[in-house]
Specification:
Length: about 350
């Protein structure tokens, strides 16, 4: 049941700190030791990340962490594009799917098997077709998600996938075990970070909504490790509000999207504090954009306090906590527009057609 919450999405946003805590309780103790060996997979030199929508975003976030910390290269492919895309021979396919029943994903699994790729599934459903067909399964422990828009399963996939990635780095001796244990200890700070971000978004977002009710379209900008969270925020906004939302690497603005900006255009910026991004923000401001920054303490939607050692220690993870503010923004705007946030039009929780 949704209990005291107005809708399942609100409940599932709220559950993210406890879900992450559950993921870490389940997998944390084995990350530096038994976790990777339990999969029975060889240590790969390359990862092929496969999924759709939000699950693919989670996969990208995870692959970036394993690349950043241990240098394992990867490619990320939409499941529907696997059949028409060349894959790196011998690569381990990491296939992410909340439901484990997405038709595009299952079709990709067939193709990947034909090409000889072993498959590690990251799913929320241990009884799914994906879990049955994969060589190894990592569960994301998010509990049932009723809202069609993925929220808590996204954070659970990112943290569960990061645990999996760290276990690979330990097994491959790309990061030594004591350093892996330190990373795991840092991850135990994520629930507090998310709880802070949820509270801060609940305080800051309602005041923003009235000015956005008539905005036909939104531009989301990120760079580096924040890019994938900008993509996820734009996806949430479009599926819930039925408004256009484009996400771009901030540096791409001048190569086209800048033409979209007019007085009042909302531009949601994942602020990483860099000078380059500040220059991009100045550019859109000069054209009259309504800049909504997400991230630091002084941002429009604050997501972390700069003073906590905790927030600093987790920089290697990328700004996962910003996604919470973007989920709240999408939901609050959708509610104000009278949308059914648990059941957006035209969408299904489990997409069983290709
Ligand atoms: C977005 C959303 C979809 C799913 C996608 C994949 O909020 O829910 O983009 O992420 O349809 O679904 P799964 O993860 O079940 O394969």
């Amino acid at each position: 049941t949704r209990g005291v919450h107005p809708d399942f999405m609100a409940k599932e946003i709220e559950q993210q700190p406890e879900v992450v805590a559950e993921v870490m309780t389940t997998w944390g103790p084995s990350v530096a030791g038994d976790l990777w060996p339990s999969f029975g997979l060889q240590v790969p030199r390359h990862l092929t990340i496969v999924g759709c929508g939000t699950s693919l975003h989670a996969g990208r976030a995870v692959a970036q962490v394993t690349a950043r910390l241990g240098g394992i290269p990867y490619s990320a492919i939409e499941a529907s594009e696997v059949a028409t895309t060349t894959t790196v021979p011998g690569s381990l396919a990491v296939v992410l799917s909340q439901s484990g029943e997405t038709a595009d994903v299952l079709r990709a699994v067939d193709v990947l098997h034909q090409r000889g790729h072993p498959i590690l599934a990251l799913t929320n459903n241990p009884h799914s077709a994906l879990a049955r067909q994969a060589q190894a399964v990592m569960l994301c422990q998010a509990g049932p998600e009723i809202g069609v828009a993925a929220t808590k399963t996204f954070t659970a996939q990112v943290i569960g996938g990061t645990a999996m990635g760290l276990s690979l780095l330990a097994a491959a001796r790309l990061v030594d075990r004591s350093a892996v244990r330190r990373r795991v200890a840092e991850l135990s700070g994520v629930p507090d970070l998310l709880a802070y971000a949820i509270g801060a978004a609940r305080r800051s977002v309602p005041d923003l909504v009235p000015a956005l009710l008539d905005s036909p379209g939104f531009v989301f900008l990120g760079r580096g490790s924040s890019r994938v969270f900008a993509d996820e925020g734009a996806l949430k906004l479009k599926e819930l509000t039925y408004r256009w939302a484009e996400s771009h690497a901030a540096g791409e603005l001048k190569h086209g999207p800048l033409a979209l900006i007019e007085t009042g255009t909302p531009v949601v910026v994942l602020d990483d504090g860099s000078e380059r991004l500040a220059a991009n923000i100045a550019e859109v401001r000069a054209r009259g954009a309504r800049v909504i920054s997400v991230g630091p303490e002084q941002a429009t939607i604050p997501a972390r306090t700069s003073t906590t050692a905790l927030a600093r220690g987790l920089d290697w993870l990328g700004p996962l906590e910003t996604v919470v503010g973007l989920q709240v923004l999408a939901r609050e705007l959708a509610v104000a527009l009278g949308r059914d946030v648990d059941k957006p039009r035209n969408l299904a929780k489990s997409v069983t057609v290709e």
